[in-house]
């Protein structure tokens, strides 16, 4: 489902965190061992779905014979009240898996839902929304998957995915020229992006060999100047302080990309519930 993601390990770790040493003592003490149930997983607000296969994996781990049917697909935008999944299986197992499955689905769908709002906000401008490495530690692959489901394009997954020379790299080297020269000498073969936060840094960065510019915390009037100055010589990415109220104006300056950390760093979980009907 997600390249490089170990689903079995994830399910094992998440369930171990929830079960502890004694397991689900409430279900074990109140639910007969042979009890069966049917259930529906429902969204209680409009969402963009992400993480259905992960949610299914928790139920399958505790009841390999559970009957599951996903009624929608990751990436779908669905209204409040939509049935996302139907389940039938062992009551104890499903009650035990419920919170792990819901937590995962609510978190990833929250990222996808917020991402889609940003994508919709810049529709028609020609700008592309990017995610960042501002993710919950240990959950980057999942966060970036959810951002894709919401319509964003993934930026760097890891530090080895691309060269991004930022202000602190420049400070250590003494100049943009020195930082870029040292990076080129390393011979990684990766695209070289350079961060600038002032118009006067643009030409030196390009002269040094920057193949892409990150325009950091520039207001729209300054971004327009940067777009005019660069005139298509390299792709331009705007970043810093972007929110739903400002992103449209940023996109309309003509930049190629806009990166937003908050879509993976602080997206609120969406409201999804599991409603049971014992048989």
Could you write a compact summary of the structure shown?
The protein has 279 residues and is of the alpha/beta class. The chain has 11 helices and 12 strands. The chain folds into 2 domains: 125 residues, Aldehyde Oxidoreductase, domain 3 (Alpha-Beta Complex); 107 residues, TIM Barrel, CATH 3.20.20.
Topology, element by element:
Blueprint lengths: L6 H13 L5 H6 L5 E8 L3 E2 L3 H11 L4 E4 L6 E2 L4 E8 H31 L6 E3 L9 H10 L13 E3 L1 H7 L2 H11 L5 E5 L5 H7 L3 E5 L3 H11 L5 E4 L7 H5 L5 E3 L2 H4 L6 E7 L1
Parallel strand pairs: 6-11, 7-8, 8-9, 9-10, 10-11
Antiparallel strand pairs: 1-5, 1-12, 2-4, 3-5
Helix pairs in contact: 1-3, 1-4, 3-4, 4-5, 6-7, 7-8
H/E element order: HHEEHEEEHEHEHHEHEHEHEHE
Broad structural category? alpha/beta
Please tell me how large the radius of gyration is.
23 Å
Give the fraction of residues assigned to helices.
Answer: 40-55%
* Shape field: elongated
Describe the protein in words.
The protein is elongated, with a radius of gyration of 23 Å. Helices cover 42% and strands 19% of the residues. It has two domains: 7-119 and 267-278, Quinolinate phosphoribosyl transferase, N-terminal domain (Aldehyde Oxidoreductase, domain 3, Alpha-Beta Complex), CATH 3.90.1170; 153-259, Aldolase class I (TIM Barrel, Alpha-Beta Barrel), CATH 3.20.20.70. With 279 residues, it is of the alpha/beta class. α1 (7-19) packs across α4 (91-121), α6 (167-173) crosses α7 and α7 (176-186) runs parallel beside α8. The protein contains eleven helices and twelve strands. The strands form three sheets. A six-stranded parallel beta sheet has the order 6-11-10-9-8-7. The protein has a four-stranded antiparallel beta sheet with strand order 3-5-1-12, covered by helices on one side. A two-stranded antiparallel sheet has the order 2-4. β9, α9 and β10 form a beta-alpha-beta unit. It starts with 6 loop residues before the first helix and ends with a strand. It has helices at residues 7-19, 25-30, 52-62, 91-121, 140-149, 167-173, 176-186, 202-208, 220-230, 247-251, 262-265, and strands spanning 36-43, 47-48, 67-70, 77-78, 83-90, 128-130, 163-165, 192-196, 212-216, 236-239, 257-259, 272-278.
């Amino acid at each position: 489902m997600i390249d490089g993601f170990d689903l079995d390990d994830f399910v094992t770790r998440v369930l171990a965190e929830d079960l502890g040493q004694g397991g689900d003592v409430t279900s074990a003490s109140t639910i007969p061992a042979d009890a069966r149930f049917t259930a529906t997983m429902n969204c209680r607000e409009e969402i963009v779905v992400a993480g259905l296969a992960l949610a299914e994996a928790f139920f399958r781990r505790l009841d390999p014979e559970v009957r599951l049917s996903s009624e929608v697909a990751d990436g779908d935008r669905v209204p409040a009240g939509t049935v996302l999944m139907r389940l039938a299986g062992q009551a104890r197992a499903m009650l035990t898996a419920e919170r792990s499955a819901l937590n995962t689905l609510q978190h990833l769908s929250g990222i996808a839902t917020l991402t889609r709002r940003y994508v919709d906000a810049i529709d028609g401008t020609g700008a592309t929304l990017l995610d960042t490495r501002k993710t919950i530690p240990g959950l980057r692959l999942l966060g970036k998957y959810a951002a894709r489901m919401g319509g964003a394009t993934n930026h760097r997954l890891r530090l080895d995915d691309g060269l991004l020379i930022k202000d602190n790299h420049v400070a250590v080297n003494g100049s943009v020229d020195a930082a870029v020269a040292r990076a080129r000498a390393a011979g990684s073969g990766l695209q070289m992006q350079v961060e600038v936060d002032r118009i006067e840094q643009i030409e030196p960065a390009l002269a040094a060999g920057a193949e892409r510019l990150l325009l950091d915390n520039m207001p729209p009037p300054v971004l327009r100047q940067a777009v005019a100055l660069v005139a298509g010589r390299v792709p331009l990415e705007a970043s810093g302080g972007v929110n739903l109220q400002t992103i449209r104006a940023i996109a309309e300056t003509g930049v190629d990309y806009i990166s937003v950390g908050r879509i993976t760093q602080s997206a609120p979980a969406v409201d999804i519930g599991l409603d049971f009907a014992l048989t």
